[in-house]
UniProtKB/TrEMBL annotation:
Domain (Peptidase M24 C-terminal) ranges: 550-612
Keyword Manganese carried by entry: yes
InterPro entries cross-referenced by the UniProt entry: Creatin/AminoP/Spt16_N, Creatinase/aminopeptidase-like, Creatinase_N, Pept_M24, Pept_M24B, Peptidase_M24_C, X-Pro_aminopeptidase_P
GO cellular component: cytoplasm
Family listed: Belongs to the peptidase M24B family.
Cofactor(s) the protein requires to work: Mn(2+)
Organism lineage string: Eukaryota, Metazoa, Ecdysozoa, Arthropoda, Hexapoda
Keywords: Hydrolase, Manganese, Metal-binding
GO function terms (MF aspect): metal ion binding; metalloaminopeptidase activity
Domain annotation Creatinase N-terminal: ranges: 26-147
Occurrences of domain Peptidase M24 (ranges): 328-535
Name of the protein: Xaa-Pro aminopeptidase 1
Keyword Hydrolase: yes
Length: 612
């Protein structure tokens, strides 16, 4: 736990200090999790909220006033935040009916005429608007403060922004040239009568240009912006990062690109406004700073056409996803077979050494580029922390006395994986078996669901929760997120969860999403079962009156432990679904293991895929 007393004192002094005549004092200062691209995962340079609060989860917002410090975060991080926040901080459990929004709390606790500051580059336009509206209604205001006060407090100790080399992604993996993607975007720009599209999200820039990088751990992206017009591609990036084969890459992809400095994005957006009359397309999920440069009457605010096109995988991307999940499945099975053998033979394996072994096994597979996130290798009570990360202080031995949850994934050049399995290598309790079985029921039910084309993900969420809801249990995270193609492991705009996502376009063929219900007994154990599923056509009898039907095809290849199942709770159809899945896993992976002469894993796989 970090002592934040001194840095909070320094920040509060800055909040009282006039800077460039912008304000006399700030009554509150907001510290979002975001970087300037509104990324979920960020580089060390941008970990400002973690620096000021001590809480290092991927989601959360800090609010500091003259005498209070508050941290809003969602259900994935309640336990972690409680463990990491010191005595200076109050945890605001976002998502609970009793927890006020940030804007509501500020409006209700600050005196009239208070000024609340935030770096406008680090908050999206969409988040800015409701906070500003609630403050204005209380005779207060939200002020864009371009000097980042956390950076000033952090000083020379703040890590530099990452500036790693960019590399090209071959067409045999990408499946479409940049010229083809540009043509598609221009068609949509014509429909919306826009002259330019401002692209801020790092995964959208990387996907559109068939480039990848490593500026953010586990996410193959790089710091850059892109402006797409009808006759020009404006690429805002440090030229020192460009790959040596960049010119050949442009020729292969049938395009030319004009390079600008990374920091020139605001200036060039302003120049575009002066040059032409047509509107500029910008996502409301991009920064308030960039949105505010464009006058309201010239601003077309909507998620970018790249966001949706990227989410619907092309045929090459689909094939890559399927293939990399087979290779990933081999590594997973090798790990779990090895782990079980080590534990039963009384050999020491910790959460950290287990995660390292899994990465080693994955690294031997073709096209491996690294993990897709930090492995959640969690034993016993640590598994009840939804996004747990093992550290030297928390590291537990994996044993046959408690549940082990492993949520992990990998980046391959042909796709991205994300899979969770829960195991008990000894004798699980009856309660553990019941909760595991109810989680499994929800996962099987959702995975077999037939639904209308373009139905919102929120509509399906209940199907994964019902078996838990039947006895008054639930889980505090979403059920399904999109997955990028050798990109971010969490990808929008679709989502399956309780919350309605404003940009959800509805579920469509060849989207890849996760299916991951869970249950967490605080301080005791956690259960999660996660597969990646491809959305494929279905053929229901009445076809939803011509709307078209869809369903899911599981592409993750790894058994689900049957020892943890309380069979009498499963319906006959659910038993059949599990048996069919295990037959598929055996038929897919066993020939590879036989060819590799991996007897240990083959015997383990044969046992774990037996019918129940």
């Amino acid at each position: 736990m970090k002592d934040t007393t001194e840095i909070l004192c320094k920040l509060r002094k800055l909040m009282k200090r006039p800077t460039g005549g912008q304000w006399t004092s700030l009554s509150a200062y907001i510290v979002p999790s975001d970087d300037a691209h509104q990324s979920e995962y960020i580089c060390k340079h941008d970990e400002r909220r973690a620096f000021i609060s001590g809480f290092d989860g991927s989601a959360g917002t800090a609010v500091i006033t003259a005498d209070k410090a508050l941290l809003w975060t969602d259900g994935r991080y309640y336990q972690q935040a409680s463990n990491q926040l010191d005595q200076n901080w109050s945890l605001m459990k976002d998502g609970l009916p009793t927890t006020p929004s940030i804007g509501s709390w500020l409006a209700g606790n600050l005196p009239k005429e208070s000024v609340v500051g935030v770096d406008p580059k680090l908050m999206s336009f969409r988040r800015w608007q409701p906070i500003s509206k609630e403050l204005v209604a209380a005779d207060c205001s939200l002020l864009p403060v371009e000097e980042n006060l956390i950076d000033t407090v952090w000083g020379a100790d703040q890590p530099a922004r990452t500036c790693n080399p960019i590399f090209t992604l071959d067409l045999k993996f990408a499946g479409a040239t940049v010229a083809e993607k540009w043509k598609n975007v221009k068609c949509q720009m014509e429909e919306k009568k826009t002259q330019a599209l401002v692209v801020c999200a790092l995964d959208e820039v990387a996907w559109f240009l068939n480039l990848r990088g490593s500026d953010i751990d586990y996410n193959p992206v790089f710091f850059a912006y892109l402006i797409v017009t009808h006759d020009e591609l404006m690429f805002f990036v440090s030229s020192t990062k460009l790959p040596s084969d960049f010119k050949d890459h442009l020729l292969t992809n049938g395009i030319e690109v004009n390079i600008y400095g990374y920091e020139e994005i605001g200036e060039q957006v302003a120049q575009l406004i002066k040059k032409r009359e047509e509107k500029i397309w910008i996502s409301p999920n991009s920064s308030y700073y960039l949105n505010s440069i464009i006058p309201k009457n010239k601003r077309h605010q909507e998620i970018t056409p790249i966001a949706l096109t990227k989410a619907i995988k092309n045929n090459v991307e689909v094939e890559g996803f399927i293939n990399c999940h087979i290779r990933d499945g081999i590594a997973l099975c090798q790990y779990f077979a090895w782990l079980e053998s080590m534990i039963l033979n009384k050999q020491h394996v910790s959460e950290i050494s287990g995660a390292m072994k899994l990465e080693e096994l994955r690294s031997k597979r073709e096209h491996f580029m690294g993990p897709s996130f930090e492995t959640i290798s969690a034993s016993g009570p640590n598994a009840s922390i939804i996004h747990y990360k093992p550290t030297e202080e928390t590291n537990r031995v994996i044993s046959d006395k408690e549940i082990y949850l492993c949520d992990s994934g990998a980046q391959y050049k042909d796709g991205t994986t994300d899979v969770t399995r829960t195991w008990h290598f000894g004798d699980p309790t009856d309660w553990q078996k019941e909760t595991y079985t109810r989680v499994l029921r929800g996962q099987l039910t959702l995975g077999a669901t037939i639904f209308p084309r373009k139905v919102k993900g929120q509509v399906l969420d209940t199907m994964a929760r019902k078996a838990l809801w039947d006895i008054g249990l639930d889980y505090g995270h979403g059920t399904g997120h999109g997955v990028g193609h050798f990109l971010n492991v969490h990808e929008g705009p679709m989502y399956v969860g309780i919350r309605l996502m404003p940009d959800d376009p509805g579920l469509q063929e060849n989207m890849m999403i996760s299916n991951e219900p869970g249950y967490y007994q605080d301080g005791e154990f956690g259960i999660r079962i996660e597969d990646i599923v491809q959305i494929i056509p279905a053929d229901p009898k009445y076809n939803f009156n011509g709307r078209g039907g869809l369903t899911f095809k599981t592409i993750t290849m790894c058994p689900k432990q049957t020892k943890l199942i309380k069979k009498e709770l499963l319906l006959k159809d659910e038993i059949n679904l599990l048996n069919e899945y295990h037959r598929l896993v055996w038929d897919t992976l066993s020939p590879i293991l036989k060819k590799e002469d991996d007897k240990l894993t083959l015997l383990w796989l044969e046992r774990e895929t037996q019918k129940i």
